[in-house]
Design a protein that fits this description.
Number of domains: 2
Oligomer: single chain
CATH class of the largest domain: Alpha Beta
Structural class: alpha/beta
CATH superfamily of the largest domain: Ribonuclease H-like superfamily/Ribonuclease H
Number of helices: 8
Strand order of the largest sheet: 3-2-1-4-5
Largest sheet: 5 strands, mixed
Radius of gyration: 19 Å
Shape: globular
Order of helices and strands: HHHEEEHEHEHHH
Number of strands: 5
Helix content: 40-55%
CATH architecture of the largest domain: 2-Layer Sandwich
CATH topology of the largest domain: Nucleotidyltransferase, domain 5
Length: about 240
């Protein structure tokens, strides 16, 4: 089912998977489908049963929670650099029946810069997001935000504290690019009907965002070779 044969002893996942009751290749297929497509866990149950594999939906959920953060961490090490003009915005995510906030940024070509799920939408949360993004990609030349006070204060505080020069632009129109990009992530989240806990939300969103970036061609190909999106995802599981 997976063209790439993954053995646990050669996998980045061996630290989170102790015993295999299913082939690792099959587990990766289920986790990729869950991160990539608008499927519920019950949908995955049915799809695997049609292929002669009986796996409980709770098991797929458990695999996803264990595997996706590890694969997302590997992706960050292999991610292409992004442009130095960033569009930053946040969107709502339902967690435990309450709205939480997903900060996201893209560059002027629509490549994902970074993302961060936060419990609050305030200066501290915005500052934490900017520092995380800069830690991954270095300083941008421009940051475009809406006119929300918390984001403005966070960027200005960052500039003042570090002494760096960053052009701050406040434009709803220029931020259409990141707002449009939210839709791909929100479409995947919608069938999940919200997340039960903040912990689960963070882990699953990391996988969804990783698959979204893979589809946008943001993973460096081993040896410069071009692979299908599925192969890119599976390559994250191999040393």
């Amino acid at each position: 089912m997976v063209p790439l044969h993954v053995q646990l002893q050669n996998s980045t996942l061996r630290g989170v998977i102790k015993r295999l009751h299913f082939p690792l290749e099959l587990m990766l297929v289920c986790v990729r489908w869950y991160a990539a497509y608008q499927l519920s866990l019950r949908n995955l149950d049915e799809m695997m049963a049609e292929r002669g594999v009986l796996v409980d939906h709770a098991t797929v959920h458990r695999w996803s929670l264990k595997m996706l953060p590890v694969l997302a961490k590997v992706f960050r090490r292999r991610k292409h650099p992004v442009g130095r003009s960033w569009r930053v915005d946040e969107t709502y995510v339902l967690v435990g029946g309450q709205w939480k906030y997903l900060y996201r940024a893209v560059d002027r070509l629509g490549q994902t810069v970074d993302f961060l799920l936060t419990a609050r939408r305030d200066v501290a949360a915005a500052r934490r997001f900017f520092e995380r993004a800069i830690g991954q990609h270095d300083l941008p030349e421009k940051i475009t935000i809406d006119k929300r006070g918390a984001n403005t204060a966070a960027v200005r505080g960052l500039i003042a504290d570090s002494g760096v020069t960053i052009e701050l632009r406040q434009s709803k129109y220029l931020n259409n690019l990141v707002e449009q990009d939210h839709r791909s992530v929100k479409r995947r989240i919608r069938p999940m009907m919200g997340f039960k806990s903040f912990h689960c939300a963070g882990r699953l969103i990391a996988g969804i965002e990783t698959m979204h970036m893979i589809k946008k061609g943001q993973l460096r190909c081993p040896g410069g070779l071009a692979f299908a999106h599925a192969d890119h995802f599976y390559s994250l599981a191999v040393h």
